[in-house]
Amino acid sequence: MAIYHFSIKNIGRSNGRSAVAAAAYRSGEKLVDSVYGKEQDYTRKTGIEYKNIYAPTHANENLLDRQTLWNEVEKSELKKNGDLKLTARLAKEFEIAFPHEVDADTRKRMLDELAQTIVKNHNVIVDAVIHAPHTKSGSDERNYHAHIMFTTRSINEQGELGKKAREFNDDGKNLTLAYRELWANMVNRELEQIGTQERVSHLSYSDLKYDLEPTMHEGSKVTQLRRQGIDTEISLKNDAIKARNAEKQLIRGLEQEIILTERSLSRLVLERKELPPPIKPLEQQPQTKKATETDARNAITKYKTAIDEIANQIFVEQQAKQIEDARTWLAKIEEMRANTPIFFGKKDHLAKIEQEVAQYEKMRSNFAKFKETGVTDEHRAAAIALIEKTKPNMVLNAKNSEKFLKNQKLEQVKKEIDPNISMLAEAHKAYTGKILRTDSNGTIQQTQNGLVYHPQIKDLKTGKEYTLTYTENQVKILENIEINRKIGKSQDNEIKR
Question: Does pLDDT of 280 surpass 50?
Answer without folding.
Answer: no
